[in-house]
Amino acid sequence: MINMDIALGNASGRMPQTDLCAPATEIFVLTKQEIECLRWCKEGKTNWEIGAILRISEKTVEFHIGNAMRKLGAGNRITAVVRGLKLGLIAL
Fold first, then answer.
1. Cα angle, residue 21 at apex, residues 76 and 69 outer, rounded to 5°
2. Following CA atoms 16, 22, 26, 28 in sequence, which dihedral angle do they give, to the nearest 10 degrees?
3. Distance in angstroms (rounded) separating the CA atoms of residues 70 and 8
4. Rg for the chain (alpha carbons), in Å?
5. What is the pLDDT of residues 22-44, one digit of tens each?
6. Count of domains for the chain
7. Do residues 9 and 27 lie in contact, with contact meaning Cβ atoms separated by under 8 Å?
8. Which of 13, 30, 53, 70 could cysteine-pair with 34, CB 3.0–4.6 Å?
């Protein structure tokens, strides 16, 4: 039988940590605007559409979504929405 920890490059005996979800000890503080933009992302809206809905520029939407992605450790807006949902920051 193969020891999966060693096979995956983790000889410490602990399970390897993935970046699929953030550790439970991290605290995420998103602004009201970042959360609102993520909510509209969840609905499939583009940056331009979100800007029109919120009456802000497309660049401002891009800024807020980028900040939310960075804070959540997401590489794209879909991952940011999924992490926001999992963490209870945005509702289904």
1. 30
2. 170
3. 27
4. 17
5. 554 567 799 999 999 999 999 99
6. 1
7. no
8. 30
Domain of residue 74, residue span: 31-92
Say if 2 falls within a structural domain.
no
Q: Helix count (H) and strand count (E) of the chain? A: 5, 0
Q: Structure tokens of 28? A: 């995420």
Residue 41 lies in a domain: yes
CA 78, 79, 84: angle at the middle one, nearest 5?
A: 100
Q: Is the dihedral of CA 32, 84, 29, 64 positive or negative?
A: negative
Q: What is the CATH number of the domain that holds 52?
A: 1.10.10.10
Sorted by sequence, the CB contacts under 8 Å of residue 24 that are 6+ apart come out as: none
Residue pointed to by tokens 């995420």:
28
